[in-house]
Amino acid sequence: MRYFNLQSYSASRIAQGCMRIASLSDKEIDTLIKTDLECGINFFDHADIYGGGECERKFGEFLKNNPALKDQMIIQTKCGITNGYYDFSKEHIIKSVEGSLSRLGVDSVDFLLLHRPDTLMDPCEVAEAFELLSTQGKVKCFGVSNQSPYQMELLQKYLKDIRLCINQLQFSITNTGIVDSGLNVNTEKSEAIDRDGGVLEYCRLKDITIQPWSPLQHGFFGGTFINNPDYEALNKKLNEIGEKYGITATSAAILWILRHSACMQPIIGSVNIQRIKDIAKCADIEMSRAEWYELYKSTGKTLP
Ligand SMILES: NC(=O)c1ccc[n+]([C@@H]2O[C@H](COP(=O)([O-])OP(=O)(O)OC[C@H]3O[C@@H](n4cnc5c(N)ncnc54)[C@H](OP(=O)(O)O)[C@@H]3O)[C@@H](O)[C@H]2O)c1
Questions:
Q1: Distance from the CA of 20 to the center of ligand 1, in angstroms?
Q2: pLDDT at position 28, please?
């Protein structure tokens, strides 16, 4: 496993997403988290809403039974989605974090992200909530998810001593919006349309880590593209490249994200032990520039 500096942490290049753990038994969760740690994955992503709170609660149960392992982990959670709408009010943010801390059974989380933009946000209120949580030691570092550069700039303007350091965004080999517009600047192609305000370049300029979510899904939770007959050419290429490096096609799809020079940290959602082991193995490999572009084009995308 490779690691990178994220604020004061040494974080694994691959993170474990915990959105899909609600239905696992305690024994399965024990095996999952211990496998992650054995593979060098030390970063765990949660949200207050995952499994209606059940994901954090089950993770907290694991921590209670394995207190010594807590120090090896970096724990992140998210807030701001509630009852079918978005709520970045001070009251909601604080209440949500307190709920997460209680379910996880911890005094603090390492990272807190705002889950999806709330257009009714008052940035002063968010700043007050963040500053209070930081002063109380309940949250160490802060970031956002699914936000554009101007949304981040707006919030950052009101944060005095806090630097937004993460933006969690959807990015996979079949969801390439954040790279498409940059590759097609100054062309008439529809891919040139910038839907995210240059978020990739903005995050790189500001040293904000991009965490790609759903790295193996197509569409919006459309299922995995691996072995999916709708993505025949992509799977052929993934298998070819996987064979060359001695890794699975699934791992090759993660390797494609890791190869981007923005040092992204993909959040994998698999709870399959063998898949996790296979994926973790690929963090040390680097595919060539030519292979990266071949995979990009294998989904039907063209370069100008
Ligand atoms: N910020 C946001 O708005 C946002 C949104 C969604 C998710 N997230 C975060 O991102 C994390 C990852 O999201 P995700 O779970 O959608 O990511 P993902 O890793 O793209 O998808 C995982 C799912 O795909 C299946 N899968 C993966 N490879 C497979 C293969 N080769 N064959 C068959 N099935 C395969 C997994 O099944 P197995 O378990 O059987 O491997 C699992 O059900 C979440 O846990 C959450 O932490 C954030």
A1: 8
A2: 97
**Of 16, 18, 19, best ligand 1 pocket probe by most atoms within 8 Å of the beta carbon:** 19
Q: Which of 98, 119, 116 is nearest to 107 (CA)?
A: 98
Which candidate, 39, 40, 46, 84, places its Cα nearest to that of 62?
46
Q: Are the C-beta atoms of residues 166 and 251 closer than 8 Å to each other?
A: no
Residue 229 pLDDT grade (very low, low, confident, very high; cuts 50, 70, 90): very high
Please report the pLDDT score of residue 15 as a whole number: 98
Check residue 203 and give its pLDDT.
98
Q: Which residues does a 6 A CB cutoff place in the pocket of ligand 1? A: 17-20, 45, 115, 145-146, 168, 213-217, 224, 226, 250, 267-272, 275
Contacts of residue 255, defined as CB under 8 A and 6 or more positions apart, other chains included, come to: 241, 245, 247, 282, 285, 286, 287
Query: Ligand 1: distance of its center to the CA of 121 in Å?
Result: 29
Percent of the chain with pLDDT over 70: 100
The amino acid occupying position 257 is I
The pLDDT-based confidence of 135 (bands split at 50, 70, 90) is: very high
**Of how many residues is the chain composed?**
304
Domains of the chain: 3-297 (3.20.20.100)
- Catalytic, 50? Answer yes
The pTM (predicted TM-score) of the whole model is 0.97
Inter-residue contact 253 to 176 (CB < 8 Å): no
Residues 283, 276 contacting (CB under 8 angstroms): no
Of 274, 287, 215, give the one whose Cα is nearest residue 245.
287
Sign of the torsion formed by the C-alpha atoms of 278, 171, 161 and 101:
negative
Find the 277 Cα to ligand 1 centroid distance in Å.
15
* Other residues' Cβ atoms within 10 Å of the Cβ of residue 158: 16
Q: How confident is the model at residue 44 (pLDDT cuts 50, 70, 90)?
A: very high
Residue nearest to atom 24 of ligand 1 (CA): 224
